[in-house]
Design a protein that fits this description.
This protein is an alpha/beta fold and about 625 residues long. The protein has 19 helices and 25 strands. Bound molecules: fructose -6-phosphate (F6R).
Length: about 625
């Protein structure tokens, strides 16, 4: 949450910083700000605005520019959304500016103490205390490194901080504890940001600032220190910026573009998993760009398990949040049914506060599109303190979770810019289906032919995902979305593997259209929620390709119709009984039963997208949300 972009170099920085902020708006977009060491006055000049970076760009009447500067796009945690609370924040004399991502848990005590010492505060944020505290520390020791060290040791919480100074005009100071911060290395210029996406068009040489470290960044040098002020050698890495395109192309919204990228994302992920040719000896090196997988051993090594461990695996635990949690719940069926591995799925925000057991021969899989979600990352850190393998399934190979887990499996969805996840969900499903088959192969339950067949099943489902969306695109746009946009609440139902899918559909509708949607396992309807059924509350049923479950769903649909409910069904070809009961239906070609969610994904997402469009809402940036939730 919150995006940071900073520059030090031989060029004026404002354009780069504002463009970088635009790329990081997925991290928050309620207000934004810019500060630089003004090359005209040699003082810190800044401007801040409520709203997204485009508002800041338009409002940038103050033509401040300089060779050292930074910007911030905010997702409010402490303090309302207003100009005063927007970053950067300053010390009293406005000679030190700071931008912050994270939460300073100890800020109230620090602020009370600083007020006693005579500091005046302008905002109600936790972040502003950092500028005042740093100024006080620097005044007492007159040594930048020492002050950084003392600051880091005083602050409690999660923080990625970048400072610019009037008195040290050629320096950026970057400090991180738990929140992400990366340094891009250029020629006669260096960059600091929350995500390499901010500068992926400028450099592919990246230095990941290790956790609990700070860096003094100048245009031609970067020095890294730990919180004991010990100098560290951190080697830069090359990132593969090939998948970093953030161009919207001809699509009206990123969400639509990303819905249409799903077939390719699934195909690319599978081709990547199948690919051969990654040299064995480079497998040990940390490579940001994706690695190809050669054979079983190198696959499992990359994932952080030995092939023996996979054979002996008795329990799999999956931890994730939001959409990734829904994918995990679908994946649970894959691991239990295909690979016969008892699997538990946890919500990461709950996981850390629950009783915790590490079983013998178990492993933990963390699923996160961004690889930065604080709840999931903290759960990973907790598990890492036990002797158990940890695996991250993510779309961002450069993420903190990848660096901190035993191994990882990258997805190849490409950058997902729309705040509502679409292609990362379908790619997660594909990855989990494939991984369950590979584990089953390792455990002697399936043959290579079965794995190849599973890959084909995935290709087919991804194809159907897109073709069904195309079949219904006109009808949804011209009739269905205008009609359903008039309702203010929906009920979503599913059973078995379509229940977590229904959860995802309800989340998508809430997120992008602000329409209330409640989801239940269809069998639970009669245990209470059926009281909600009336003509004004459409009920959406997602069907199953399992015959027994399908017939149960038909009964649930009948229960709805008997109460004069308005019924929408997502059903498969030949499911006549269910289709006949429906007021509105989407018919989807048959796929392998466990892949029913993948096949239904495109048309479900497009319906939700179009309802939001009909309501003229900011589809890519729904209110109150941010894409990368780096606070707990
Ligand atoms: C919903 C959505 C969120 C994320 C959740 C976890 O569309 O995107 O629910 O799925 O915040 O994010 P990651 O997967 O990055 O850990």
């Amino acid at each position: 949450m919150c995006g940071i972009v900073a520059y030090v170099g031989s060029k004026p920085c404002r354009e780069f910083v504002l463009d970088g902020l635009l790329r990081l708006e997925y991290r928050g977009y309620d207000s934004a700000g810019f500060v630089c060491v003004d090359s005209q006055t040699n003082r810190l000049s800044f401007f801040k605005e409520v709203g997204g970076v485009s508002v800041l760009k338009k409002a940038a009447t103050l033509k401040a520019n300089g060779f050292v500067g930074m910007g911030h796009t905010r997702w409010a945690t402490h303090g309302v959304v207003d100009q005063k609370n927007a970053h950067p924040h300053f010390n009293c004399k406005k000679t030190i500016a700071v931008v912050h991502n994270g939460i300073i848990e100890s800020y109230m005590d620090i602020k009370a103490q600083l007020i006693k010492e005579g500091h005046n505060f302008c905002s109600t944020t936790d972040s502003e205390v950092v500028a005042h505290l740093f100024s006080s520390l620097l005044q007492s020791c007159n040594d930048l490194n020492k002050a950084a060290q003392m600051l880091a040791k005083t602050l409690k919480g999660a923080f990625a901080l970048v400072f610019t100074f009037e008195d040290y005009p050629d320096i950026l100071l970057a400090i991180r504890s738990r929140s992400p911060l990366v340094i891009g290395l250029g020629i006669d210029e260096n960059f600091v940001a929350s995500d390499p996406l901010a500068f992926s068009d400028k450099t592919s040489r990246i230095l990941f600032l290790p956790d609990e470290c700070f860096a003094i960044v100048k245009k031609d040098s970067v020095e890294v220190f730990d919180f004991d002020n010990k100098r560290l050698e951190v080697l830069p890495r090359e990132i593969d910026s090939k998948y970093m395109s953030v161009d919207k192309q001809d699509f009206e919204h990123y969400m639509l573009k990303e819905i249409y990228e799903q077939k390719r994302a699934v195909t690319r992920t599978l081709s990547f998993y199948k690919a051969i040719g990654f040299p064995e000896d480079s497998a040990s090196e940390s490579v940001l760009g994706h690695r190809n997988i050669v054979n079983s051993d190198s696959l499992w090594r990359q994932i952080g398990l030995s092939s023996e461990q996979v054979k002996d695996l008795r329990y799999l635990n999956i931890v994730a949040a939001g959409t990734s949690w829904h994918a995990a719940r679908i994946g649970q069926f894959f691991f239990e049914i295909i690979a016969k591995i008892p699997t538990k799925v946890y919500l990461s925000s709950e996981f850390r506060y629950m009783p915790f057991f590490v079983e013998k021969n178990s492993a933990f899989l963390f699923i996160s599109q961004s690889g930065e979600t604080a709840d999931t990352l903290e759960a990973l850190r907790l598990v890492n303190s036990f002797e158990v393998p940890t695996i991250t399934l993510t779309n961002v190979s450069s993420s903190t979770m990848v660096r901190e887990s035993t191994g990882f499996l990258p997805m190849q969805a490409g950058p997902e810019i729309s705040v509502a996840s679409t292609k990362s969900f379908s790619t997660q499903i594909a990855s989990l289906y494939w991984l369950a088959h590979r584990a089953a192969l390792e455990r002697g339950l399936l043959s290579w032919q079965d794995v190849t067949k599973a890959e084909e099943e995935l290709f087919v489902a991804a194809e159907i995902l897109e073709s069904t969306l195309d079949n219904y695109r006109f009808k949804i746009t011209s009739q269905l979305a205008p009609f359903y946009a008039q309702f203010d609440k929906f009920i979503f139902l599913g059973r078995h593997v379509s229940y977590p899918f229904a959860l995802e559909a309800a989340l998508k509708l809430k997120e992008v259209s602000y329409i209330f949607a409640q989801c239940y396992p269809a069998g639970e309807l009669k245990h209470g929620p059926i009281a909600l059924v009336d003509k004004k509350t459409p009920v959406v049923i997602f069907s199953s390709l399992d015959d027994i479950i399908y017939h149960k769903l038909v009964s649930n649909a009948q229960e709805v119709k008997a109460r004069e409910g308005h019924l929408i069904v997502f059903a498969f070809e030949g499911q006549t009984e269910l289709l006949q009961l429906a007021d509105c239906s989407f018919v989807i070609p048959r796929v392998k039963p466990l892949l029913a969610p993948l096949a239904m994904t495109g048309v479900m997402q497009f319906l939700v997208y179009q309802i939001s469009h009909e309501l003229r809402l900011p589809i890519d940036k729904p209110r109150n949300l941010a894409k990368s939730v780096t606070v707990e």
